[in-house]
Amino acid sequence: MLDQFKVAKQDEVRIPATALRKTVQSLFEHVGVPPADAETGANVLVTTDLRGIDSHGVSNMLRNYLTWFQSGRLNPTPAVQILRERPATASMDGDAGLGIIQGPAAMELAIQKARTVGVGAVSMRNSGHLGAAGHMAMLAAEQNMIGVCLSAAGPRVLPTFGAEPRLGTNPIAYAAPTRGVPVLLFDVATTVIAENKLRLAHRLGSTLQPNWVADTEGSPISEEIPAPAPGEYQLLPLGGTREHGSHKGYGLGLMAELLSTMLSGGVPCMLDPTQHWKHHFVAYDIEAFTDLDEYFDRMDAMLGVLRATRPAPGHERVIYPGVLDHETYRERSVQGIPLHPEVIEWFNQTTSSFGLPPLETVQVPAESDD
Amino acid sequence: MLDQFKVAKQDEVRIPATALRKTVQSLFEHVGVPPADAETGANVLVTTDLRGIDSHGVSNMLRNYLTWFQSGRLNPTPAVQILRERPATASMDGDAGLGIIQGPAAMELAIQKARTVGVGAVSMRNSGHLGAAGHMAMLAAEQNMIGVCLSAAGPRVLPTFGAEPRLGTNPIAYAAPTRGVPVLLFDVATTVIAENKLRLAHRLGSTLQPNWVADTEGSPISEEIPAPAPGEYQLLPLGGTREHGSHKGYGLGLMAELLSTMLSGGVPCMLDPTQHWKHHFVAYDIEAFTDLDEYFDRMDAMLGVLRATRPAPGHERVIYPGVLDHETYRERSVQGIPLHPEVIEWFNQTTSSFGLPPLETVQVPAESDD
Known about the structure:
CATH class of the largest domain in chain A: Alpha Beta
Largest sheet of chain A: 7 strands, mixed
Distance between the termini of chain A: 18 Å
CATH architecture of the largest domain in chain A: 2-Layer Sandwich
Order of helices and strands of chain A: EHHHEEHEHEEEHEEEEHEHHHEH
Largest interface: A-B, 96 and 95 residues
Radius of gyration of chain A: 20 Å
Structural class of chain A: alpha+beta
CATH superfamily of the largest domain in chain A: Malate/L-lactate/L-sulpholactate dehydrogenase, NADPH binding domain
Number of domains of chain A: 3
Oligomer: homodimer
Strand order of the largest sheet of chain A: 2-3-4-12-5-6-7
């Protein structure tokens, strides 16, 4: 993650993962989510924070999740339905449940199908925000499969040359197991910048680079600007401008709409903005395709070559997707998860108003913070 | 396609598709490709030209294909082998055949599997250049399926922050059927710019935009420059710079390597540059997931809303991937395929040296050329 999206060192409060997980689970339970589901949701969020994906952890979306459960926009006890099923595929209706809770089960179904017939693909409509799509892909990687996950919502993102938003920030994620090096884990919004990161930048008072966003009329803003508040900008697809490939980001976002929404019989948000989220999960059983040992040999060798790439002038090292997640996971597992004081304050207010015990904010020794 | 990649109107010679197909087939046959395969290859190339994807039609790669067949780098009569197979999956070895000829059969296998179990996924190693990956995806769309196709080769593209190329321009393509509007067809290199387009720009004497390519040390070139010759630049992943998401383009390119190379038991070109191309083909049977009529209703409605998007200032219209291909296909089916005189000259030299009849260059009336 770029520096402008990080909580400043002097501001951060470190919270142990176990304490955070406990509090998040209790918050979910308080709004009516059954304990096992609340545990799943808390685990997805806190694991995401441990991996350093602060934009999709507890800081940005948790307050929305709770509000939506309370307002009835999300259903804490959904009756998930399988609409159609074949040996390799299923389409599901999430009954307005929360994606971070429903995603793991949908990916597990794809994994089971992959184990039987080689690959499994599951599309789900009428679900809620998925959190980090990469988390779902990782569930497949943990079972020696390649996981792919896409999600669609919106409409928040401009199509190339457009002045009206049509697509969501529609992420594409994949994960693949390794033998002795950090797991290959890729998870990106199909925009120049993830919307959650823009919110984070606004909260942190950071600036935005040229062509990261468009003005409200749809023209890319070609100078550096202070991060505007939501509503004062439009999101651009990856590439930013047509000359730099925004049609590629646009088409990749549309791919998520195709596989998540169209295959599950959902209605795209560009046709009806009140529609819920849709997701797509794929698991590939590696052994259906090739020898697992040989796969591991080559994966580790390939990822080693990527890391051994000579850096361009001004850069220290070349990494691959998943290396930073791995390093951050190890550091935060020991040192705790850094949260902004405003987020801590929100936790305290919320647990207090719910009549729940406060978040345990055990401070981590300062010298470990270099 | 951006203007700088188009053959200038005053230079172009229009060739009817049937004449071009006939000559290309005869060239393939002359270097030892069996007639049915030569026909397949000619059809892929000429259809690609009809769709307006000049960078992947007859102009850029055909001369390489012929050279490689003659030099033994490609095998005109490969014994394609299925390595592993499950109801939904297969891995294959292409025996050094040409991808544009082998792709249609591999996608057909994926389609057959999808018809039986809902989705089919096929990975192929040891093949040749795939041409337009979108062509393979379209084969699924023509059978009321969603097609996805990726391909990996290289190493030509820098990883983010790297000074040494590691990945190919690794395309990602998909296609999805529609009822009454142009088919959704997406096919892009995971670089800022496709390498074939850079070659075309060099041949046409066009300029390159800032951050389209890096210098030979790996630093993105931040000013506009005349298109350099191959070898005088390095390719950047989609996004261009890290601040604009080059790590996303890098990870998407790596996805092609994962699904094409790792699943087929192939060796990535970054480990061994003499390795051949690898591909990945997926077909989703729409009816396994949802009602086909409902799907068509929503697809056409969604694509209609995308086209009805109010354009940003300075732009005439908003389209979706596949609209230009459709429009160009219709125009070129009637008016012929525009080729650069240098390409015509190459055809004439080649047919002459092979002892084959020359390409029929029937001129199209000038007034149709507005």
